[in-house]
Amino acid sequence: MNVLLWVLQVALALLYLAGGAYKVFSFDELANQFRALSRGGWRAVGVLEMLGAVLLVVPAATKWMPVLTPLAAAALALETLALAGLYARYSLKLAATNPLVWSLVMGVLAAFVAYGRYAVWPSA
Q1: Contact yes or no for 113/5 (Cβ under 8 A)
Q2: In this predicted structure, what is the pLDDT of residue 98?
Q3: Number of structural domains the chain divides into
Q4: Of 19, 41, 77, 84, which has the fewest beta carbons less than 10 angstroms from its beta carbon?
Q5: 76 with 110: CB under 8 angstroms?
Q6: Do the Cβ atoms of 79 and 45 come closer than 8 Å?
């Protein structure tokens, strides 16, 4: 179980880091596709995702305040599931390219990591 949690943590960290960087640095392309949030809103979401990505791995790997890992995973799960609700409101077409599908999958996986690191196999 510990290996599965580590694999999920690293994979989610890479995905959230890439997604957060896209939201922060490629706003113009994002704004043309999806106008639900302002520039500041997308930047705040992107910064939250990049910070959460770092906190998914670093505290548990260094054994420095490992309680931050399940908290970061829970925060990312809530943020991602909230974005999924926003995507569902503006996009009803269900396809693999729809961000709603990816948001739901990543939100559920982040919630699983949060539960696993808090209750099943804590890092400390």
Answers
A1: yes
A2: 75
A3: 1
A4: 41
A5: yes
A6: yes
Question: pLDDT tens digits for 65-81?
Answer: 989 999 999 999 999 99
The DSSP code sequence of 18-86 is HHHHHHHH-HHHHHHH--SS-HHHHHHHHHHHHHHHHHHHHHHHHTSSTTHHHHHHHHHHHHHHHHHHH
Domain that includes residue 28, residue range: 2-120
What is the residue whose two structure tokens read 């890439």?
A: 18
Q: Is the pLDDT of residue 124 over 60?
A: no
Query: For residues 98 and 75, what is the distance between their CA atoms, to the nearest angstrom?
Result: 22
pLDDT score of 121 more than 80:
no
Which among 112, 61, 104 is positioned nearest to 86, based on CA atoms? 104
